[in-house]
Predict the structure of BTB domain-containing protein.
Amino acid sequence: MGHTRSQGLLVPLYNQWSITGPYAPLSYYKVHRFQMPQFHHPLPSQPHRNMTEPSTPATYQLAVKPVPITPLSSASPPKPPMSSSQISQTSLQYQPEKQYYHQSGDLVFVVEGILFKIHRFQLERALGVNSDPIPLGAQQLLQGVAEKNLKIQFLHDKAEEFRALCWALYAPPHEIVLQHTASHFKLDLILNVFLISHKYCLESLQTFAHQILVSHCNATCKIPELERVLRLSIGNKASPVTKAVEQALLHRLEEDRLGTISTARLITLAEELGMRDFQGKLYYHELVRDEASILKIPSSTAYNFPCTGNLTEKQLLALFHGYRSLLRYWRHLPSEVREKTLPKLASCEDHWKCQSEWNSAWNSININASPPNLDVLAALEKIRTSLPNSLKPNPPFPFPSPPFAFIGSPTPATPAPNLFVTPAPAPAPNPFATPAPAPVATLCPLNAQRRMQPCGQKELDDLIKRLEDTLADHFLGSHLP
C-alpha cells in the first residue's frame, strides 16, 4: 500500500472487512484502475482551479473576462425608481383614458385594456365618513403605490362602469345637480355608478345613486327602465330603490285606464325575483280593477271580466283564490274585532269612550255586503274618518266652553268644566245665538271633521298594516310549511 507511483486503487473484494482485522491479506483486495488527476504546475496564463475536478473541454468552457473593481467613491450614484409619469405608455401596451388619466394621480387601473390614473384621496372621500374599517371591496381599489413605484391593478369591470365611477369622483357640482332634472337625467350613467359603488362599498356614491334613482322612478323612468332598475336593486339589496320602483309601478297601473301595462308581465317579474309581497300587491290591484270593470254579457245572465284577459292560467287561479279569501276575511272581521277588548294606550284617560266608539263603528258595518269592488283596504281606511250617526258631534258649543278646544290643563284658578254634569246657573252664552267674534286660534275647532279616538286609531292602523303585510297569502297561500 506504500507505493510511490500508484496506478490504481485497492478496494475490498467483499462488502465487509475480514474478522481478522483491518490488516487483511492482499488476496482480499483487487485492483481497479481509474484515471488519476495529473498534478503539475499551472501555466502562468491559466487561472487557478480545483485540480480534483475533471478538466472541462475547451468547447464547453465559458469565457471569463476580468472586470476591474471601481472604488466606491468614484462610482456613479444609483438611478432613482421610475415615477409613473416617466414610464412610457407605449411600453405598457394600454390605451390611456382621454379624460381620466391624470399625471398627478397615484392609483393606476387597467380596465378592458384602458389605462385609468386617478387620485387616492378621491376614492377615500367616496368611502363616506362611517367607513372604519375600510370595506374589503374598497381595499381592493386602495392598494396604492409604494413611494414612487408604479403598481398597476387589473380590474374585471366594464370600462363604462369604471368611467362612471371616475365621473362621480371628478364631475363639477353643477353637472351633478343636473342629474336631478328629468331633461338631463342619464339613466345608464347613474346605473353604472350604482353598480360599481355597490361592488366596492363606496358609501357616499351609493347614497348619491340611490337618491337620483328614487327621485326619477315615478316621474321619469318608463316601464322597461323601471323593470331594469328593479332587477339591479334586488341583486344589490338596495331596499330604498326597490320600494321606490314598487310604488312607481303600482302608481302607473292605477293611472293606466286603457290597460296598456301588462300586469301578467309584472307578476311574472316579481315571481322571478322572489318578491312575494310585491306579487300580493299586484294581484290585489288586478282584483280591485277587475271588479270595477265587470260587464254583463248582452242577452245573457253571465258577466265578463275584461281585465283578466292577459293573465296566465296559473295567475287566474291565484286571482280567484284571493277573491274568495278576502271576501271571507271581510265577513268575519267585524265579529273578530268585537270579541277582543280594545287595547288601552298609556296616554288614554277615558278609555270607555274609545271602546264605545270602536264598537259602534264596527256594529254599523253590514257584514252581509262586500265593500265596493272588494277593496278591503279602502273600506278599512274609510272607518278611520267615517263615524256612525250616533257618534257624530253635537251642535257646536252645547256647553259653556270656548269655540275651540284648547290643548293643555287650565290653571288651578280656572278649573276645567265637567262636561257630563249639569252646569250651575251662570251667565252662559247662548250657543245658538250669533257668537261674538272669537280670537283666531290655530287649534282644531270642535265642528271640524272628527277622527277616531287614539286607542281605536292605533288599533285600526295595526289592522291595516297586518292586512298589507299578508296580502300575498290571500292569493298565493301560506308560505310557511
